[in-house]
Amino acid sequence: MERKLVSIQRVDHLEDIPGADSILKARVMGWDVVVKKGDFRVGDACVFFEIDSQLPEGKDWAEFLRPRGFRVKTARLRGVLSQGLALPVSILEGETPPVGTDIREPLGVVKFEPTSPEGSDVAAPFPAEVPKTDEIRLQSALGVLDELRGHDFYVATKLDGTSATYVRMLDGTLVACSRNWALRPSTSRTWQMAEKYNLATVLPPGFAIQGELCGPGIQKNRLGLDALDLFIFSVHDFRTGQYLGHAELLAFCERLGLRMVPVEHVVTGEAARTFDHGLENYLKLAQGLYSGTKNRKEGIVIRPLVERTSPTLGGSRLSFKVINNDFLLKDED
Ligand code: ATP
Ligand code: MN
């Protein structure tokens, strides 16, 4: 599901911040966000900008973020975590659209993207056979928790590298892709992994594997690897349009000699039935270090053991991420 970077939402809760006269702590969807006192009463609609919103220049309502390059980022104000920006609907011209409406475009907001060096290698658009890799943030899609409740599920570590997809076409050709593009065969990191794992022969035609490419020179190499490696998180059968479930994914990786992303917890049976699916609990699980390192992990990705579709996510697979708030506050670029 496309992320709704800016949308009409409701202020569900307001509370005082000890020692602060002019600001309040508000709750919008699953986000805690600091707002100006007097801007809202509980239940009011607001214009909600998620973190990573890059506001336009030349709008009065965006001026206060000029010193921060107009970027909405995780912050701590008076000791309170603030994620996003809630402004009164009076900043909009005309009638207020219904709650949930995506208003990124009319407001001229774009997504902040740290520059990615994939330019010169692009060969073609991303193959239409396979969904691009993406994960929704739990706080923006709290409905997924009810959809997961009662089902066996697992928690994987979110690795902080770069996305790679390899598709073996039915005619046997191997297509290697970055997050958004098919890459021309070269000595690029993405193609090095195709060589290392011999994907042009071992990957069965009709299948795509998707993983995180990690190692020296990629992001901050927070796993502390000595050499590049690929950590698989999805296998997609494009003839059926299905992803493999957890057990099949494990077996598939084992058979092809591939590594999977680290799986931190597999929760089944009674433990799954009684699991605390509260946001707070997930935020705790998202904290901590990459195992064997002193580096904070970026977060976790949660999926049912058996693939399911998610009405909350518009019918795509049930899967979501929870980003480590310590990472957002201290490590994010
Ligand atoms: P946003 O959706 O918040 O705007 P974004 O689209 O840049 O941010 P990321 O925060 O990088 O996305 O999260 C999605 C990406 O996480 C996937 O594309 C994938 O490359 C990567 N990833 C790393 N580890 C995992 C994992 N264990 N499971 C699934 N995806 C993972
Ligand atoms: Mn995304």
Automatic annotation (TrEMBL):
The keyword Ligase applies. Keywords: Ligase. This is RNA ligase, DRB0094 family protein. The keyword Ligase applies. It comes from Myxococcus stipitatus (strain DSM 14675 / JCM 12634 / Mx s8). InterPro entries: RNA_ligase_dom_REL/Rnl2 (IPR021122), RNA_ligase_DRB0094 (IPR012646). It holds the Pfam family RNA_ligase. GO terms for molecular function: ligase activity. Residues 153-323 form the RNA ligase domain.
